[in-house]
Design brief:
With 417 residues, the protein is α+β, with helices and mostly antiparallel strands. It has 12 helices and 8 strands. Strand 2 and strand 3 form a beta hairpin. The N and C termini lie far apart (71 Å).
């Protein structure tokens, strides 16, 4: 007779097997077979419409926000979330590029630090398609985010919105992903110029339809304009849009940035291990101009084996992080280890793909807008992969966190002022 623990384990395994079969069946019926071709070279409007339709398709199945609490439309167990992202990656489903900030960063912020009124206003709206951007970085405050200079001053007489006191914001933000399509954004601004850098920042929710806002897309080296600059000229924000206490925005921002850990990294790792590696193998098996195949070269096979081993390790590392995060046993530097490992492995993989694809890859100037960094347009994917060693903390910052918080090494000396 099996022990109670063995019986429970078998039951859980069988339930997960059933859930996996359910997701596979759904993917076979709902993932658009030609979405990559249909999303290549399309105008921004078509990209946005496709993304919104795909989000609602996932929502109807209960797959759009599985990481949210049950009361807001989520509540999926962690083990099932892992299965879900594995199967979406295996079936090459489009990524939720446009909704990413809304369902991860904005939701994490609202759930951790927002008021009941803010959650009731925005979480259902996000499910209905409200798009968000993140306005944190500035031209001189990227990696050193605490150096931001955008200001927010409290006004009680001159600026009043619906009878509420307001903050008036002036400044410039940059690298705001998807801001050209967004309805709202997460905003950090300095509310106390005399306080130490991290203690004088407040956190706001900003309606991007407010007067005084100028959004300008930034054309990237890949030809896309995913990032934007946001100029703020005396923009009035009601004080009901303040998240957390005034001057406590740095602490609240850690909840936002924490949303990049866990499931988001697991999804990216699964996509690299499925669509990304599969396209790499296909490129190696494709005959060159003289009929030779790169895959016939032992050095190429060795590189593929090495990358596959590293990707397998990354996927296991991400799953371990997710499970320990849910159990409350995650270490202070674990997320930095995963981010550093993923970003640099992504670059090595895309670099090898570019090398294998040869000169012809340099003429491929378009990629599917709803894909990630594993589209098979190797040069564009390689250029795009470099983004990952910068946002969310550069590789140098991640190594500092690992050294100081993970290994207990002495803090780096600070420059004298």
């Amino acid at each position: 007779m099996a022990s109670p623990s063995a019986s429970t384990s078998t039951s859980a395994s069988r339930d997960l097997d059933e859930f996996r079969a359910e997701v596979r069946d759904w993917c076979r019926r709902h993932v658009p077979a030609d979405w990559r071709k249909a999303q290549t070279g399309v105008p921004d409007g078509e990209f946005a419409a496709f993304q919104k339709d795909w989000f609602q398709e996932l929502r109807r199945a209960g797959y759009a926000v599985p990481h949210w609490p049950a009361e807001w439309g989520g509540g999926m167990p962690v083990a099932e979330q892992i299965v879900l992202y594995q199967e979406l990656a295996a079936h090459d489903a489009p990524r939720l590029v446009l909704a990413f900030v809304a369902i991860h960063h904005a939701a994490a912020t609202l759930l951790a630090a927002g008021t009941d009124e803010q959650r009731r206003r925005h979480l259902p709206a996000i499910l209905d398609g409200e798009i968000w951007a993140q306005a944190f970085s500035e031209p001189e405050a990227g990696s050193d985010l605490a150096a931001l200079r955008t200001t927010a001053r409290k006004e009680r007489d001159t600026y009043v919105v619906n009878g509420q006191d307001t903050y008036v914001v002036t400044g410039q933000k940059v690298w705001a992903s998807g801001a050209a399509h967004a309805d709202w954004c997460l905003l950090l601004a300095r509310t106390d110029a005399d306080a130490p850098k991290r203690r004088g920042i407040s956190y706001f929710l900003l309606d991007l339809r407010t007067s005084g806002i100028d959004i300008r897309p930034v054309r990237q080296a890949t030809g896309e304009s995913h990032f934007c600059e946001v100029f703020l000229d005396d923009v009035a924000i009601p004080d009901t849009c303040l998240v957390g206490p005034v001057n406590d925005g740095w602490r609240v921002a850690q909840e936002t940035l924490g949303a990049e850990r866990g499931m988001t990294m697991l999804e990216l790792a699964e996509r690299l291990g499925n669509a990304g590696f599969r396209r790499l193998v296909e490129a190696c098996a494709r005959p060159g101009p003289g009929g030779e195949r790169p895959l016939d070269d032992s050095l190429v096979r060795d590189r593929l084996a090495m990358l596959e081993t590293e990707i397998t390790g990354l996927r296991a590392l991400c799953r371990d992080l997710v499970e320990r995060h849910a159990a409350g046993t995650v270490g202070p530097a674990d997320a930095s280890i995963v981010k550093l490992y993923y970003s640099e492995l992504l670059q090595r993989t895309m670099d090898f793909g570019t090398e294998i694809a040869g000169l012809a890859a340099h003429t491929d100037l378009r990629k599917p807008l709803s894909s990630g960094w594993e589209s098979g347009a190797w040069v564009l994917d390689f250029i795009g992969s470099w983004e990952w060693t910068i946002p969310g903390g550069t590789s140098e910052i991640q190594r500092t966190i690992i050294g100081e918080r993970g290994l207990g090494l002495p803090r780096e000396p600070r420059a004298a002022r």
